[in-house]
Write a structure and sequence with these properties.
349 residues, TIM Barrel, Type Iii Antifreeze Protein Isoform Hplc 12, 2 domains, two-stranded antiparallel ribbon, 31% helix, elongated
């Protein structure tokens, strides 16, 4: 599978998983807090920090009719109308440049999710190195075409999308000029539950669309993300905040710094453990081979003595003949004197 270069970082199966910290609206409308989130993300060991680029007016209408209200007792945002929610959650566009600058100073790759074509034009001015399409926008064909036309790598979340809709999105961006594509398995519930995540889809998606596949993970904890890497995910995205207790539109399902640090470390271990299809002792195991069982002489013997259960045993260490020869050796006579504790070999018979 083709690896993808984003600034100085290579993304692909031969490289450590690319971990994205999603700030979303967890800045709580404070630029200072946004910059603190950047610093905390850099210390946690992630590779990139992602923003969302929109305004309430580019997403919806300022109306409070039924269509524009969130009326779902299970939703974190129950009681808001869409316009109010997006006003609370959006990242002011004038903050993007200082956030990008701080990211690059700290070795993070900054990028964003644009929600309309004007956001793409704005992000191009900031030399955004890669673009993310949100699950709720993966059917926004004009936006997909606009982003693909930049020629930058694209990440598309596939939450809620049918196989046909994913296929349409992939064909759209490839036809419009996207050469480097990553799809993310995603369950668009907040938070998501492990049993509703279906990460086996990662393998299928990779085969169907011949591209890298990762996970946009809204579950709590790090277990699902680690499992996704074992299934071939090359990218993992998690919402991130300094502290869930501080509140914020996405704080309830966001990772805190210690959790993100564990995610970065453990997904790397999961990737390292994949290795290759391999049988037999590894190089590091060869020294341990001596602790396997083998056949040993257990009593002093004289030339002409017969090997029996009384003077021949299968024990540790592993310097003698393999245990599979034990029955064959019983009844054999030895050709020389042998001390107890001698490993059996073919020269003594």
């Amino acid at each position: 599978m083709k690896e993808i270069m984003v600034e100085e970082k290579k993304i692909g199966g031969n490289h450590c998983p690319f971990i994205i910290a999603e700030m979303s609206g967890n800045h709580n409308q404070s630029l200072q807090r946004a910059l603190e989130i950047v610093e905390a993300a850099a210390k946690s060991g992630v590779h990139a920090l992602k923003l969302q680029t929109y305004t309430a007016d580019t997403l919806t209408l300022n109306l409070d009719t039924k269509d524009f209200r969130i009326e779902d007792k299970e939703s974190l945002w129950n009681g808001n109308n869409l316009y109010q929610l997006y006003q609370q959650a959006y990242t002011p566009w004038e903050w993007h440049e200082p956030i990008y600058q701080r990211c690059r100073q700290l070795g993070l790759i900054p990028f964003s999710t644009p929600f309309d074509e004007t956001a793409v034009d704005f992000l191009e001015q900031l030399n955004t190195p890669i673009y993310k399409i949100a699950s709720f926008e993966n059917n926004h064909i004009p936006l997909l075409k606009k982003v693909a036309s930049t020629g930058k790598p694209m990440i598309i979340s596939t939450g809620m999308a049918s196989l046909h809709e994913i296929d349409e999105a992939v064909r759209t961006v490839r036809d419009a000029g996207c050469k480097d594509l990553i799809l993310l398995k995603c369950t668009s519930t907040y938070p998501a539950t492990p049993e509703n995540t279906n990460i086996l889809t990662i393998r299928d998606m990779k085969e169907r669309f011949n591209c890298q596949v990762g996970l946009s993970d809204h579950t709590m904890g790090i277990g699902v993300s680690i499992a996704s890497v074992a299934l071939g995910a090359t990218v993992v995205e998690k919402h991130f905040t300094i502290s869930r207790a501080d509140g914020g539109v996405d704080s309830a399902f966001s990772m805190e710094p210690d959790e993100m640090r564990a995610l970065a470390a453990e997904t790397k271990k999961a990737w390292q453990a994949l290795g290759d299809v391999y049988y037999g002792p590894t190089e590091s195991e060869k020294e341990s081979m001596k602790f396997k069982r083998s056949i040993y002489i257990t009593k002093d013997l004289k030339a002409g003595d017969t090997l029996t259960h009384d003077n021949l045993r299968i024990i540790r260490p592993g310097y003698g003949l393999a245990p599979k020869y034990f029955e064959q050796l019983l009844g054999e006579t030895v050709r020389k004197n042998i001390k107890a504790g001698t490993p059996a070999d073919w020269t003594i018979f």
